[in-house]
Amino acid sequence: SSGAAAADALSFPADFLWGCATASYQIEGGVKEDGRGETNWDVFSHTPGKTRDGGTGDVACDSYHRYKEDIELLKALGVKAYRFSVAWSRIFPSGRGKPNQKGLDYYNRLIDGLLAAGIEPHMTLFHWDLPTGLEGGWQSRDTAYAFGDYAGYMAGKVTDRVKHIMTVNELRCFTDLSYMTGGKAPGLKLPMAEVNQIRHHGVLAHGLGVQAIRAAARAGTEVGLADNPTIFVPAIETPEHIAATGKAMREENAMFLTAILEGRYLESYLAAQGKDAPKMKAGDMKLIGSPLDFVSLNIYTPNFVRAADTASGYEILPHLANSPRMASPWLYVGPEALYWGVRTVSDLWKPKKIYISENGTSADDPVAQDGKVYDADRVMYLRNYLTHLQRATREGYPIEGYFLWSLMDNFEWEDGYTKLFGIHHVDFKTLKRTPKLSADWYRELIRTNRLV
Ligand code: PNW
């Protein structure tokens, strides 16, 4: 793992953990089955105009019924690990109260199936599908406590078999993009005082979750989170721009990852928010800063930064209309993001272990005559990004593994089914899964443990 010398200039460390990632609402379907409760995304996706072409997760990839096929896909790829998320409302239909055994049974079947196939389950507890029974959603501090209770319950039930638990996925997405800019459920555009409070409830939920998991888990359980800090890349790889990159990383993520890894809010963040700064209770920051066993990063897009004579000491260079990007408008191409994401997090906060919990791309490649998708552009994207991750392993950064987003085409939130990230094509009429060219490429990468 960390720092192990590579066999040659293109190899990954021998025990590097290759995986694929998915999330409950994006793949499961079965939204009314076995007592699952309603979530914010059920409501949002059924509200006209909120998702592209009115897409919903009602059926999605039907993994609630086809999880055995998903495990077969994973086996055929040769991955060692699978990152999936638990639908909170299958376990506690209204977010708290009496647990629903049938919901838990589904995840037990999935976990046992993965283990039988020799695949490590890496479980995320919250990937945005919030039970609507939790009135007020993330606006309510109570939601953070409900999350802690749910996290502790799950840890008690699964840590005999699940050794890696992530509390939440992508703080910025379920706070800012949901309550400030409003593209994601529940689609609100609130004033900053409320947004900052929601951010605080998000990081507090994570901290309460960590504590509850530690209290309930078997020995040997590793706890972390999957976050998507804004990733910075030095405009030029010189000491001054590298220093500016670290500053930007810390400052621009002050309300999320910096708060979690330092157990405090930076003065600069609190000062900038002024009267809109979050209201805290005694002990909150200690909970938020609960020590972690690993940090997982979802990395897609770079932001180039230069040292500058500004108050902060840096300037973030804007993305341009013709900057290279993939099928999703926000997905700018910058393979260096994978290296610099790992390096800045490692240099700033020295976590014991780092994982890439998501990386991948949308692409528009059509189904060819022979029924296969030849997504050479996705292969190009992955090969380039992984070249830079391999550099991080070579230089001894504690990067343990990589989860490709995503195992298969799925419900891409407000983009519905118009932006597809899978390395397996899913025919959403028949639900048949077919490996794309990128799946063949990933299988070969895993087999050789070497860039191909
Ligand atoms: C992540 N952005 O979302 C999520 O964790 C996945 O559920 C999702 O399917 C995947 O990436 C692809 O989108 C993001 O605007 C959504 O920068 C938007 C952004 C980043 C990540």
From TrEMBL:
Keyword Hydrolase on entry: yes
Binding site for substrate: Q26, H127, N169, Y300, W405, E412, W413
Alphabetized UniProt keyword annotations: Carbohydrate metabolism, Cellulose degradation, Glycosidase, Hydrolase, Polysaccharide degradation
An example Gene Ontology biological process: cellulose catabolic process
The organism of origin for this protein: Novosphingobium silvae
Active site: E170 (proton donor), E358 (nucleophile)
Pfam families, sorted: Glyco_hydro_1 (PF00232)
Protein family according to the UniProt entry: Belongs to the glycosyl hydrolase 1 family.
Example GO molecular function: beta-glucosidase activity
Name of this protein: Beta-glucosidase
UniProt catalytic activity: Hydrolysis of terminal, non-reducing beta-D-glucosyl residues with release of beta-D-glucose
Taxon lineage: Bacteria, Pseudomonadati, Pseudomonadota, Alphaproteobacteria, Sphingomonadales
Gene Ontology CC, one term: cytosol
Domain of life: Bacteria
SUPFAM superfamilies: (Trans)glycosidases
